[in-house]
Design brief:
By secondary structure, the protein is of the alpha/beta class. It has helices at 11-22, 34-40, 59-67, 83-92, 104-121, 158-169, 177-184, 193-208; strands at 3-7, 27-31, 47-50, 74-78, 96-99, 132-135, 138-141, 147-149, 152-154, 218-221, 225-228. InterPro entries: CheY-like_superfamily (IPR011006), OmpR/PhoB-type_DNA-bd (IPR001867), Sig_transdc_resp-reg_receiver (IPR001789), WalR-like (IPR039420), WH-like_DNA-bd_sf (IPR036388).
Length: 229
């Protein structure tokens, strides 16, 4: 049984999400604010759902600290729906974003998709590809989400890992923002999705590159997209 942590200071929202997810067979742990969420995250948690506006610590701050403890997928479920809010959420390390009021079907679909992708790339399910990709000291395991540079482990989110894996398996191919979004998120691309892709590329570079302004691994092809050479 998968364990899902829901953090929201609204008792009614937590109850709705808990009942909904428990009916799908998940075990739900509740947190009443950002600090409580951080304290309850451990290796047993398979997915985290965060609100943005919470007491003690906002969802953004909680997300950043949670990312230091786990690479489990993080979904923001919040009434704040501006592009700037989504930008901040992805910059903090989240994997997905769903605005309130939300469709129950949509929430369950997002949760299942995040968990499925996370466990495929952690090696919980079999994928028929070569086990290890090596590029100039960068090593990417295709049967787990382990990444290292010069034998030093690099901690990536599930989305970051999926982007890196896709591009490394197709070296020299130029991926537009639309290519990446539709391949990784498996959703139709809209212009606003470009910012989502840019944030994840920036986050990847900050973790992989000694000098993110002059990247060694993920190159920008101006006017076209990104590629790994």
């Amino acid at each position: 049984m998968k364990n899902i942590l829901i953090a929201d200071d609204n008792d009614e929202i937590r109850e709705i999400v808990r009942v909904l997810l428990e009916s799908e067979g998940y075990n739900v742990i509740e947190a009443v604010d950002g600090e409580d969420a951080i304290n309850k995250v451990d290796d047993s948690i398979d997915l985290i759902i965060l609100d943005i506006v919470m007491p003690k610590k906002t969802g953004f701050k909680a997300c950043i600290e949670i990312r230091e403890k786990t690479s489990a997928p993080i979904l923001f479920l919040t009434a704040k729906s501006q592009d700037s809010d989504k930008y901040m959420a992805f910059s903090a390390g989240s994997d997905d974003y769903l605005s309130k009021p939300f469709s129950y079907t949509e929430l369950v679909s997002r949760v299942k998709a995040l968990l499925r992708r996370y466990y495929v790339y952690k090696g919980k399910e079999t994928i028929d590809v070569t086990d290890l990709i090596t590029i100039n000291g960068l090593k990417i395991s295709t049967t787990s989400n382990e990444v290292s540079i010069d034998e030093q482990e690099i901690i990536l989110t599930e989305i970051e890992y999926n982007i890196l894996l896709l591009m490394s398996q197709n070296r020299k191919k130029i991926f537009s923002a639309q290519n990446l979004y539709e391949s990784i998120w498996n959703e139709p691309y809209f212009y606003s999705c470009n910012n989502t892709v840019m944030v994840h590329i920036r986050n990847l570079r900050s973790k992989l590159e000694l000098d993110p302004q002059n990247p060694k691994y993920i190159k920008t092809v101006w006017g076209k997209g990104y590629r790994i050479e």
